[in-house]
Every structure is written in structure tokens, then in C-alpha cells.
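yo

u said u wanted the structure for the complex thing, so here. seqs first:
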Amino acid sequence: MIKDLFIGLSKNQLLNQAAKKYGLRLGAQSVVAGTNLEETMKSIKELNSLGISCTVDNLGEFVFERSEAIKAKEQILKAIDMIHTNQLDAHISLKATQLGLDIDYDFCLNNLKEIVEKASNYHMFINIDMEDQSHLQPSFDILDELSKEFDNVGTVIQAYFYRAEEDLQKYKNFRLRIVKGAYKESGEHAFQEKQEIDANFIKLIKWHLLNGKFTSIATHDHRVINQIKSFVKEHKIPKEKFEFQMLYGFRKELQFGLAKEGYNFCTYVPFGEDWYGYFMRRLAERPQNLKLVASQVLNK
Ligand code: FAD
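structre next:
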């Protein structure tokens, strides 16, 4: 029920527009690195100093105007330059809808090409984040096109989809992030029960660790992390073949602890004015995150 409420709120375009005007509010400042690139670079530098690399996301949703998609592209290109100039240990995560997938497929593909090409000159990786089911296949199609020219691009496998195992096998030679899946999907396409999703998540991670190129294990679930730690030990999987990932601001002790233990760790660092939909999805995943809201509001 609560999950549905927050997923519903995340798609509310009026609230999304209003949120942009008022800056980071409602506790979002704990989980969003900043509204501009300067603040974000500072956060990345701090994480890098703890031995943590970053994947940087310029937040943005509901892009239906070409001018907005171009603005997002320019901002991402600027982020790539700043990461390079500041010699930071970071790469980019992006969403195809922010770059025009809902406007025109070729327009979106060309925007992505420009980004991937620039990053490729700096040997920087670009991750195509995965969104809801309606954007899944077009996002894979874009990846297919890009990988004909570039090798610095990869994507995400969402374990709640029935098709996830097939996609994983098809894309095993890519650097892949494996997640449970953040959107509300129907039983026609996705597992609905938490236990089924968790079981598939672990199965896919293990398969990719044994057969794939590089695995980003993206979860805040300590039970999954512990199982994977035992699995990599048992199968002597070298640390260079995988990393753990978590979102900025969540379970910081666990993030710092894994990095200290010597695991490769990468924090997903979202930034920008368009924080609303991202923040609502985090509340949908874990209503306990409302505590963040309460503490921030009370501290005002
Ligand atoms: P959950 O299933 O939410 O929680 C499992 C258990 O872990 C909880 O019961 C609790 O015991 C513990 N736990 C979880 N969170 C906390 C916390 N904050 N504090 C204390 N204990 C906690 N989804 C997509 O659909 N597409 C993407 O491209 C995508 N990219 C992502 C990138 C990263 C780096 C991460 C971390 C997630 C991404 N997601 C993405 C979201 C993902 O699909 C899940 O919705 C999200 O990670 C919640 O699932 P979980 O595995 O973290 O744990």
C-alpha cells in the first residue's frame, strides 16, 4: 500500500515541477549529493578519499521536450569533463528517458552516442540505468547500437523481471549492475513476491560472477552481501571482477566498512534539481526512510 502511494507520488508531474523550484527539501538533502556540479564534485572527492569510487547520476525524469533532453546531455558532458579534470575516481550513470527516449528513439541514441564518445576519450565508463518495463527493450536496443562502436558502456539487470536471466546471459560480456528492481511492475512481466525476487537476485549475481565480465552488486541488503562474500571466497573470484554498490547517504557504515575490508566499492551519487521522483522511489522501497524526512523537518 505505502509502496504504491510513493510510486504514485513519484510519477506526479506537478509535484515534480514544484520540487524543482524549492531546492532540496523533505530530507532529500541526505540522499542527494547536491543541486549543482561543484557540490557534487566535493562529495565525490570525499568518498574517493575513503577509497570509494562513484557513479554519478544527473537526476531527471519526465523529459518530453527536446530542449530539456539537450540540457541534460550538456550537463552530463560537463560532469564528464569535471570528473576528468579533477582526476576523480568516478563514472556516469544515466537514464535514456532523460536523454529523449520518450521523444524520439534516434534523437535519444544520438545524445547517448555523444556522451559515450566523450567518455570513451577519457576511458570513462557509462552505465545505462534501467527504468520501467515500457522502456526496457528500447534501452537494450540503444546498448546494442552503442556497443557496435564503443566498449565503455554497460547496463543494469533487474532481477524482478522474468526475462532477467535471459538478458543476463545475452549481455554476459558487458559490465553489468544487478539490482532487485525499483519500479512497480505487473505480474505479467515480473515476480511479485519478495522471496522470489531475492532468490532470483542472488542466482543472477552468482551466475554473472562465475561467467560474466564484471559485476556490480547493487543492494543495501546485508543478507545478500554476506552470502556473496562467502560465495566469492568459496569460488576464489578475484576482487577485480566485482564491486558492491549502494546509494549515496544509505547505510554509510556498511559502505565504509566494505571499502575498509578491501572490497571494491562504488557509491551511486545522484545530483541535480530534479530530485523528487528519485526521492519518492527511495521512500517506496523502504518506508523507514521516512525517518529521514521526519528528522530533517524537525531540525528546521
Ligand atoms: P531491500 O529489498 O529494499 O531491503 C532488504 C533488506 O535490507 C531490508 O529488509 C533491511 O533489512 C535491509 N536494508 C535495506 N535498506 C536499508 C537501509 N537503508 N538501512 C538499513 N537496512 C536496510 N533499480 C532499478 O530498477 N534500476 C536501476 O538502474 C537501479 N540502480 C540502482 C543502483 C544502485 C547503486 C542501487 C543500490 C540500487 C539501484 N536500484 C535500481 C534500486 C534497486 O532495484 C532496489 O529497488 C533497491 O536497491 C532496494 O533493494 P535492496 O536490494 O537495496 O534492499
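The chain has one domain: 33-274. Residues 129-130, 156, 158, 179-183, 218-221, 245-247, 250-251, 268, 285-286 surround flavin-adenine dinucleotide (CB under 6 Å).
cya
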